[in-house]
Amino acid sequence: MTGEPLLYAEQGGVVLLTLSRPEQRNAISDPDMIAALEAACRKMGSDRSVRVAILTGAGAVFSSGGNVKAMAAPGGRLESSPAENRQWYLDNIQRIPRAFAALEVPVIAAINGAAIGAGCDLACMCDIRIATADATFAESFVKMGLVPGDGGAWLLTGIIGAAKARELALTGEMLGAEEALRLGLISRIVEPGDLLTTAFEIAAKIAANPPIAVRMTKRLLREAETGTLESVLHLSAAMQAIAHASGDHKEAVMAFIEKRTPRFSGN
Q: Residue 185: its pLDDT value, please?
């Protein structure tokens, strides 16, 4: 393998992340890809100029998930003990959902083809998902005699609900884009040539908003997935206190009063 596993390009506060292993169908379970995804989340989180990110795949596939050939290779998962495999998941693939969960920058998944197994779960780690008409999705671990080892059971259930998530995970069946849209797994279907254009249009709308408020809103939405109403109300009050003290809030108020376009600085 040559080249970087993940391409990172930033312009105007929008980061484009491209899974760049098309020869492996953009599998995400190899150590260098895991490290690259984790590092990209850390970099975006610490860079206050980054306002939104787009994640897509090189070639015709978004991500096929795990590298099955690596599992069967000498010294791979097939030869490891249960204890070794358990530790491998904790120390490797599970770093990806943890990194995305900690990231306050919104991420748009631009799904350009198949999103299978851990690839489907990677899409679920993003905040907004759009896909081409020929995109396919499968929570297909059971087909390989495996379970969703990267948090997919939690991720998929939170997006489409328990009943359908159980059906998909237990059957491993494939979904087309239309069914994914109906279930709420994705929010838009676009033509292949319009995928990145549409993703950047959505990104621009997000990036136009005050970045402090955007990051805190994402965090609040994430906390709402598991918190009680009371805990979310308390967190909302604390975040709102911070928002009220921001320069961008003052700018938004003055721009509204003065009937002009606001100029947000991220302060």
A: 98
CA atoms within 13 A on the CB side of 250: 7
Q: What residue type is assigned to position 231 of the chain?
A: S
What is the domain extent for residue 132? 6-207
Cα angle at 12 between 10 and 13, to 5 degrees?
70
Number of folded domains that form the chain: 2
118 and 195 housed in the same domain: yes
28 located within any domain: yes
Question: From CA 50, how far away is CA 12, in angstroms rounded?
Answer: 8
Mean pLDDT (the chain) is 94
Is the pLDDT confidence value at 71 over 80? no
CA 243 centroid distance within chain: 25
Q: Residue 66: is it exposed, middle or buried by C-beta count within 10 angstroms (0-12/13-18/19+)?
A: buried
Distance, in Å, from the CA atom of 4 to the CA atom of 30, rounded to the nearest integer, reads: 12
State the Cα–Cα distance between residues 45 and 65, nearest whole angstrom.
Answer: 24
Pair (124, 235) in one structural domain: no
Q: Are strands 107-111 and 52-57 parallel, antiparallel or unpaired?
A: parallel
